[in-house]
Every structure is written in structure tokens, then in C-alpha cells.
Amino acid sequence: MAAYLSDIEIAQQCKMKHISEIAKIAGIDDNYIEQYGKYKAKVDLSLLKDIKKEDGKLILVTAITPTPAGEGKTTTTIGLADGLKRIGKNVMVALREPSLGPVFGVKGGAAGGGYAQVVPMEDINLHFTGDFHAIGAANNLLAAMLDNHIQQGNELGIDVRRITWKRCVDMNDRQLRFIVDGMGGKANGVPREDGFDITVASEIMAVLCLSSSIADLKERLARIIVGYTYDGTPVTCGQLKAAGAMAALLKDALKPNLVQTLEGTPALVHGGPFANIAHGCNSVTATKLALKLGDYAVTEAGFGADLGAEKFLDIKCRMAGLTPSAVVVVATVRALKMHGGLAKTELATENLTALENGIPNLLRHVSNVKNVYKLPCVVAVNRFPTDTDKEIEFIIAKCRELGVNTVLSTVWAEGGKGGEELAREVVRLCEEEKGDFTFSYEDDCTIEEKIEAVAKKIYGGDGVIFMPAAKAQIQTLTKLGFDKCPVCIAKTQYSFSDDATKLGAPTGFKITVKNVKVSAGAGFIVVLTGDILTMPGLPKSPAAERIDVDDNGTISGLF
Question: In this model, does residue 2 exceed pLDDT 70?
Fold first, then answer.
């Protein structure tokens, strides 16, 4: 019967260890932790400098292109870490923090699933340690100081039609995408068009996740471009004298959060940029700390490997000097059959034709990891009871043709025990197969060349169509000296292309670039393609309708 419990019921049955005990397991002295109750703690950044141990092996978990059938990437990441612990390895797991937007929107909770979860699940999915609130406050302080500067005489000569900085809120709220504010007369500000992004798309989130110290954080914040003057000169956060106050709001949010898996494996959960509209990885500090504390550090990148893994490898690893030792690509038979054109209602029946039509999606992701980034790779198939032996054998045979092993994972149902085989294969890859890590493009390529490299090498497209506005923006950014930055492509998560309806491994397409802007603080160029939105909306039946809390404070409905 236990297998039929909901994720939140499983999490609530867990007898969690006190966070000081988890810190001890991780090798963290009490002096370095600030407890947030019994089961959460912040870890002081000074620990990174004080640990003399060599870095462990970095394991990246990514996935095929998402479908409504689900892939279980976070679940696999957690189950793999628990599996490594069960086979006697010293392991840390590093994950992103969930955003309230998806928690109340389509996805529900995002702390793993079944018997492979991080806990306290409710806290992690809701306010946690307040990091996202701090990011939102810092973002909106900058917006307030920008508009106040204009109201108080506009000494910098900011053109209100060329303001690029938006306000943000950690909620899916389409009503706020485009607004007009400053209404009501002279005393109430200067009327202008404005808008909100979701907090996880804010540049402050990217800055926090890429900063190595408070000094680095302040420097990055100061570089943020908020708009342009009438003559086209960029205006920065530093010129508005906002960086110090913003850093004061973010000083605690910069510290990684320590929690635990259901099996007591130490977990760092920190930062949460979306992978379809931002760079999709947990913080550099959490990853580096996990590498210092564990012999194996397991981390994930959001959505499919064309988004999260590409940005993890081309942006995060480039900036932080990280090199993964192995990559896990997560897939399910069900999701591959959906990529092969099968309806969600038909997934429980064996269908090798649909699987054959859908498996090119997995094979392209695997080929990218092996042949573009030149990293050792394993496919983890999340097995469902309806998957047949013939379907599993088909996937194993196809992956073997690429020289990649396939391992069945049953971590959702069995926790770490169901991840032991995957753990052994990951250890084998780390010890026996040496990668030759290569980026998909070099720093000295032009902005257009970088976008085209990702579109052709990673997406499998024929090239890129640059809209007139994007061409002009690229020209401006090149003149300003930002052409050496990596590119962060905002694209639908549902397809290799920028068209969400093109499933599987489409060919013969070009991606359309509509807008290009610089995140000067984060240090990358944001490229907006297709119909991507930086503020999602709620679905017709949001998960929020099913979330509740009883008189004892027990929360239900969080998946």
C-alpha cells in the first residue's frame, strides 16, 4: 500500500534527522551553519575557503525533451545520490529551489518524488529560507530607485522608452506581463510602459547563482544595465547607487541551504533560475561546496539537455571552471512514445512503432553529450509498471549503437536501493572513461555565431532567422563590447526547435530570434526565440486549487 501514497504523504512519514546531524554527516562543523529551525540550515561561504580536500567528481543529471508523461529528472538525481551512498560512497547532492509559480501552476511540488525526495518537502516547495523573497525584494528595490531617479530630475538622462529593467514576483501571473504605471499625476511618478518577470527569470537570480562572494555579488549587481539614455548610452545599477543596498538584502540568500534526502543524504538546495528562460542551474557556490564536501557531487540542470545541460556546460562550467566527470540522461518509455506521436491516454499499451518514432529524441540528446561536449554518458530509464521487456530492450539496443549503456532506475518506488545499479555505472564512468570536455562554441565567436552553433550542433536545426530588432540589438551589444559573453537562449522546453508542437528529433527547421539583450551582471547574452514568455500564466485548473492546510498546520495537495 505504501507505494500508492502521494509524494507529500511519503515525505510527511519520514523521520528526519536534525540538521546538525546532517551537517556532521557532510563534514560541516557547527560553526559554519545557521539553523533555520530543526531541519534546514544556511552554510557560511567561508567553509569553501577553509576546506583543504580535493574536489570530488561532478555528475550532471539531465533529461530528454519534457512531455506531459514526465521524466523524473529531480527524482533520479536524488535517487542516484542515495544509491551512491548505499554503495559506500561519500556523496552530496546539489539541486535548485522550486519556484512558487510552477508549484501553484502546472507542476505542483518540485522536490523529487516517491521515495526519492528532499525534505522538508513542504518548506522547500513554499517559502523555504526566503531566498526568492530576498531576490524579488532586491530586484524591485532597483526598479523603485530607477523610477525615483527619473522622478527626481533624471540627472542621468534615462529615456523612459528604453528602460529594460522589469519588476518581478515569484508567481505565474500573466496579468502583469504588460502594464502602465506612474499614473495619477506628477506626484505619483512618470507614466510609462512597464511589466513583471517571474522572479526566477530576474537577472538578480542569475547574478546570485553565479556569484562567488559578497564582493563578487556587489560587482555583478553594479554592472547590471537597467536602460539607456537618449543618446543610447547604457545606464547601470552602479550609476543609480543601488548595488550596496541590494547586496544587503541578498547577503543571507547567497549562502547555500542544507537539507536532507528521505534517506539522510546531505543535500544543498540553492538558487533556481528557469532553464527555458534563464540558465537553469543551482548556484555555483552550492555546486563547488558539494564538490569540496563529497567524493561525488550529483547535480541537475533544468528541462531537456538542449536547455539545462547546454547552459550548465556552456555558461556555468565556463564561468566557474567546472568539468563534469559523467552525465546521466533520464528518459521514460512513456515519454518517448509521446514523442513518437502517441496520445497520453494510450501510453500503457506496448507500442514499439511509437517508441521507434520517439527514440530519436533521446539519441540526439545522448549524441550531443558524447559527441559535442565529449563527456562520458549513461541513460537512466525510469521504469514504469506498464513498460514491457521488449520496449526496454529496444532502448538498450539503440543506445548501445552510440556506445552508451542503459540502466533501469526504480528510485521512485524503491529510493536509493533502486538507484544502486545506476550509481555503479556512474562510478565506472568516472573511474574508467575520461572525457575531453569541449564547449559547443568558443568565447571569441560573434554573438550570431554562438547562437548558430547551439541551433545547429545542439538543436539539430538548419540555422537561425534574426528578426530586424534582434539584428539591431546584436549590433549595439557588439559595439558595447558584450560579444565575448556566452549566450543564454530562451526557448520552449517542449521541442528541440522553437515550436512546441515539433516533437521527437525534428530536422529542417530554423529558430527565430526576436530579441537579444545583455545580462551584464550575470555575464551572458539573453536570446529570446519563438513565443517564449518571461512571465508564465496559470493553467485552467492550477495546482493551487488542490493545495490546502488543516488545523494542525499539515499541508496537503503539494503533489
Answer: no
